[in-house]
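Page 42, continued from yesterday. The earlier attempt failed because a stray header line got pasted into the input along with the sequence. Redoing it now with the clean sequence only.
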Amino acid sequence: MSCDWVGGSGYSRQDLMTQLHARVLIVDDEPANVLLLEEFLSDTATEVRGLNDSRQVEQVFKEFEPDIVLLDLHMPSIDGLEVLRRLSSARESLGFLPVIVLTGDTGRVARNSALLLGANDFLIKPLDRTEVVLRVRNLLRMRELFLSLPASSWPANNDPAKT
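This time it went through. Structure tokens are written below.
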């Protein structure tokens, strides 16, 4: 039986992949990117919903009720920054709901703008499977811990990363 160990971590790829139990919303205008991310998360216990049209994100967000969002930054019509603005109040009402921004843009302006608007993490394309899974897993753990706290102890802006 072969085991695919993740560089010096002491965990096999299978160990890391089976630890997720969540609803993941992927928003990217490139169908190939959505398929790639769905494949990256296919070995996990996640329910994944891919969306190629950012104009539908608010409706899909309400219907699907994701635990985490993977969001492309540069899209036609409504870009990732505008999606972050539009989802801001919905995310706050749900407690801590992490967003990972995905982009090929390595500039500081793009990264800082996304972080200012509430993104919790940033991944540069081309994406690495292990890094995607680890970052998703880490933010889902943080969400789980946040939601286990009594609501009265939540920070005013509901984001533990900003306290």
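Notes: Confidence is low (pLDDT under 50) at residues 1-9.
Reminder to self: strip header lines before submitting.
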